[in-house]
């Protein structure tokens, strides 16, 4: 079965679904796969918007040819050069040698650097318009959502925003392509995980893109990943607005790094005490066993964060160090932070976490404490106090 999939008349989804790649960017787990969305507009001139990962170029070009027959693709609009979207450009050029590639003044260097392509590139400026016939495309430069060359393309007659990575999510499309064909709840967590893993560092740039598009009458959101939002684009616009403006919910993520269970014991005590103090959304994670991808996603969601770590080779336990580094990289905001450390002969975890707290500029909840060897009664008392203070601060 290989049916044509229309977004609107003469506008087609020609993306592919990747259920084979296990880690996106060789970093982020894909238990539910991912889609690479590409779109075809058939008019007096034919325009393709973005391509797909190179692995899928055969089925991608088959889809295009099935729609176009002997007609040619006149334009390839490159909204984004990350190879999950630009990977099939060379294969496409082989099939359609006359194709005119359209990008902005940052795109050309990527095309040459990745693929050795130096000709046939039409450079557009911000707000420039390209007429295909009855369809008109307006280009909006949106740098750093997610790379410097990223832009969005707005189709005026149908109000379709081809948004690049913005408004995207993990999760392959499993039959349903459009928001009105899907169980949106299924995609909710995967959208947040995608955002926090891939886009979150550039949240201020996402907000800038919102400002830029404020007067644009968007009726359909067509991202490079995940569902196409044709019935309720506000759902994904609101979700991205919340995520990129650091809005949080009441709840606490407790993450610990523990070699032999002593740090874990303190973390469990804290989680229990949070529950006794009325916190209903608690996520307790072992940093060595839950992938950073999921930790980031839940931390971005909930206002409270408590990190505990043992000392390992006179430093933070490596999975916890990876987490604090990733949080600093993404400039996490609007959180209340609790920290504690443990050690046996050389204290380091607590001070390293204090250093993280200072750099992250988060609201530090007292007490900050450390336990030597196994936690003593007094350490568990401090743990309870930290949980009580955190619950009070969140409900405050
Ligand atoms: Fe889906 Fe930044 O590429």
Structural features, described:
A hairpin with a 2-residue loop joins β19 and β20 (315-316). This protein is 35% helix and 24% strand. It has a seven-stranded mixed sheet, with no helix packed on it. Strands 17, 18, 19, 20, 21, 22 and 23 form a seven-stranded mixed sheet that branches. A five-stranded mixed sheet has the order 12-13-14-15-16, with no helix packed on it. It has helices at 57-68, 83-86, 89-95, 107-115, 184-199, 203-212, 233-244, 262-276, 292-301, 318-329, 349-360, 377-395; strands at 6-8, 11-13, 16-18, 23-24, 28-29, 34-36, 39-42, 46-49, 75-77, 100-103, 121-123, 129-131, 136-141, 151-155, 160-162, 220-222, 249-257, 282-286, 302-312, 315-316, 336-343, 363-364, 369-372. The protein has two domains: 5-244, Metallo-beta-lactamase, Chain A; 249-395, 3-Layer(aba) Sandwich (Rossmann fold). It contains twelve helices and 23 strands. The protein has 396 residues and is of the alpha/beta class. In the N-terminal section; belongs to the zinc metallo-hydrolase group 3 family. This is MBL fold metallo-hydrolase. It comes from Iocasia fonsfrigidae. Residues 35-225 form the Metallo-beta-lactamase domain. Pfam families: Flavodoxin_1, ODP.
């Amino acid at each position: 079965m290989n049916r044509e999939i229309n977004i609107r008349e003469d506008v087609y989804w020609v993306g592919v679904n990747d259920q084979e790649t296990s880690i996106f960017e060789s970093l982020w787990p894909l238990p539910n796969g991912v889609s690479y969305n590409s779109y075809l507009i058939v008019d007096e001139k034919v325009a393709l918007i973005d391509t797909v990962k190179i692995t899928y170029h055969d089925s991608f070009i088959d889809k295009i040819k099935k729609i176009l027959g002997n007609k040619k693709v006149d334009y390839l609009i490159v909204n984004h050069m990350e190879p999950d979207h630009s990977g099939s450009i060379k294969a496409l050029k082989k099939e359609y040698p006359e194709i005119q590639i359209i990008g902005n003044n940052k795109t050309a260097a990527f095309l040459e650097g990745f693929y050795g392509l130096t000709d046939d590139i039409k450079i557009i400026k911000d707000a420039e318009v390209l007429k295909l016939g009855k369809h008109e495309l307006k280009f909006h430069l949106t740098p750093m959502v997610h790379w410097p060359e990223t832009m969005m393309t707005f189709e005026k007659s149908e109000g379709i925003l081809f948004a690049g990575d913005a408004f995207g999510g993990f999760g392959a499309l499993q039959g349903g392509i459009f928001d009105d064909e899907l169980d949106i709840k299924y995609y909710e967590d995967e959208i947040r995980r995608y955002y926090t893993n891939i886009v979150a560092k550039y949240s201020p740039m996402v907000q800038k893109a919102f400002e830029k598009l404020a007067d644009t009458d968007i009726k359909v959101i067509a991202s490079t990943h995940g569902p196409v939002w044709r019935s309720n684009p506000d759902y994904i616009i609101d979700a991205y607005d919340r995520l990129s403006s650091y809005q949080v919910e009441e709840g606490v993520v407790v993450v610990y790094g523990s070699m032999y269970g002593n740090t874990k014991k303190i973390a469990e005590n804290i989680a229990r005490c949070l529950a006794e103090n009325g916190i209903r959304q608690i996520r307790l994670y072992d940093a060595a066993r839950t992938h950073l991808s999921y930790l980031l996603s839940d931390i971005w969601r909930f206002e409270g964060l408590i990190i505990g770590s043992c000392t390992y080779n006179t430093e933070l336990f490596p999975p916890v160090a990876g987490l604090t580094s990733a949080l600093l990289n993404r400039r996490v905001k609007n959180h209340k932070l609790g920290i504690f450390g443990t050690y046996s002969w050389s204290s380091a975890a607590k001070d390293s976490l204090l250093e993280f707290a200072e750099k992250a500029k988060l609201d530090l909840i007292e007490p900050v404490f450390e336990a030597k060897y196994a936690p003593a009664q007094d350490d568990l008392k401090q743990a309870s106090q930290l949980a009580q203070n955190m619950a009070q601060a969140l409900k405050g």
